[in-house]
Amino acid sequence: MTVSECRAEDVPVLVASAAALFAEDGGRHDPFMDTGWPAREGHSYYAGLVEDPQCLCLLADGGAGHLIGRLRRPDPLRPDAVTAVLESMRVAPERRREGIGGALVDRFLAWARERGASEMSVQAYAQNAGALAFYRAHGFRPFLVALTRT
Ligand SMILES: CC(C)(COP(=O)(O)OP(=O)(O)OC[C@H]1O[C@@H](n2cnc3c(N)ncnc32)[C@H](O)[C@@H]1OP(=O)(O)O)[C@@H](O)C(=O)NCCC(=O)NCCS
């Protein structure tokens, strides 16, 4: 299995994986999610991330998985924290439980540490039990809990 950084020509593959994530995760767990956003806006958004030195865009095996990370701007309320956010990740259903997600997260953690991150964070839907178990297996623990009601 190979993990590589996205180049400009890989953006359509990244958009396709992100669109599938929107459909599977946001579309299933958030009634307000606009699952058409990646098709409309995704190309310019993800092309911008690929060029952004504060962002990491990874593909595994040419598109079987993706991960997007970002160094957050300094927060004056938490001056000693340097936070790297795992913004998005997905592995194609037929390739899950082979260690691809783990390889992507390991690359993200190394990238974040190289850039001085003192914490790494990720958000997941409370109902996405698989993702929560995956992140827990990689050392992430609940810190803030978002509560919502309609
Ligand atoms: C979450 C996801 C990225 C994990 O990718 P993956 O390549 O299957 O993960 P790995 O094979 O590296 O799994 C590593 C470990 O994480 C845990 N894990 C992964 N998926 C799990 C699941 N569905 N249920 C329980 N534990 C899980 C296990 O401990 C696993 O080790 P094991 O297979 O030896 O038991 C993948 O399931 C996925 O793309 N899900 C749909 C999209 C999604 O939810 N993305 C995250 C949005 S926040």
Automatic annotation (TrEMBL):
Write down the CDD domains for this protein, in alphabetical order. Answer: NAT_SF
Molecular function (GO) terms listed?
A: acyltransferase activity, transferring groups other than amino-acyl groups
What's the superkingdom here? Bacteria
Recorded coiled-coil stretches = none
Keywords from UniProt, A to Z, are: Transferase
| Entries under Pfam families matching the protein | Acetyltransf_1
Q: Can you say what this protein is called?
A: Acetyltransferase (GNAT) family protein
Origin species? Amycolatopsis tolypomycina
According to the entry, what is the taxonomic lineage of the organism? Bacteria, Bacillati, Actinomycetota, Actinomycetes, Pseudonocardiales
